[in-house]
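so my prof wants the structure for this chain in the tokens format not the other one, which i didnt know existed until like an hour ago. anyway here's the sequence
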Amino acid sequence: MKPLIPWRDALRCVLETVEPSAVVSAPVEVRTMGSVLAQDVRTRWDFPSADVSVMDGYAARSADLIGARPLLRRVGESAAGHPLNAVLAAGETARISTGAVLPSGADLVIPQEDVQASEGDIAVDLAAFGEVEPGRWVRHQGSELRDRDVVLEAGRRLGAADLAVAASTGNTSLQVHTRPRVAIVSTGDELVPRGVVPKPGQVVSSNELLLAAAVVQAGGIPVDCGIAPDDPDGLRTALAAAMTHDFVITSGGISVGDHDLVARAFAQLGIEWSVHGILLRPGKPLAFGSGQGTHVFGLPGNPASSWVTFCLFVAPAIRRHLGVRGDLLPPTTAVELRNSAPGAGRRAHLVRAELHGDGTATALGNQSSGDVRSMGGADALLEVPAGTSALPAGTSTRAFLLNPWRS
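here's what i got, hopefully its the right format
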């Protein structure tokens, strides 16, 4: 292993190595959701595209609203999608619905509750209508957006509402970064597939499911490459097949024990390690390297260690590859500790915690990296700095949010 380094230095190394992916044109449809924009999205016309009514009522000319109770002659109707193809002359009005185009000659709308309608005419109650001024109850052309205004900025990960915005502003395709394909390889002779009852010394392989779901949440496309054996030849074969993808994530076998073969196998396949070992609990054995057109993360095999290192290193790398801009770490929130959060000596300790609605957090009792239940109960990570024995109850700090990018 290389000398242990602070986890933020390791993250910096990762993000300096991974570059945004290629740019492609993608249709504005559901399967594009989750992609990240490579270019700003602009409107193709004004919004609204004409002067429209914001009320059901009557379009009229402000010059005609004089006297105590003006009487106007109704000459037609402008409905949403069916504008009136006529010009209002002096003393004329047209029925109009919300969202309908204002007829030529009209410059305001009278709400229907402010008139008394009879056959062919309306009498306007000016006391109810209020001040007569052009533009009343009218949304003017371009008042919301002008043609070529930016509505979505490059670097934004597309959600459902973003697709609707793009479509409604006239865009049929978007320039986006390609989503990375992420190969997941679980290692170890002790692993058995899900659905198999483990014998003594065996464990059910669950990390590939954990990591595949986390890849989807981060924006990537997971590829399950199965379980690789603790055998040099078989392991190299499995890893070589996985290296055809943008990223490779392995789980287990990355430390320095006699049966930890992953780092050596990758080195034989042309991967150069830039990180191997970090000053962090959980996650000390983490490794990161690149070569042969791919980026490789060697994650610890214990579930909690795999999860924490994914959130801090792999998810930011995927988001960097996707073209996300700004801070790539999980977002944080301010919390006050209900109990103490333990330190880890010379390593920083990311303590799994439960958040409460009142802005407080509880450090979970079992912080073992092999404890599956503590993963299910955790929705935040509290960082206890290296050299700190504990953060006492009542401490105000910030917590990393887990699973902040749920699809």
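also thought this was worth mentioning. Residues 303-322 form the longest helix (20 residues).
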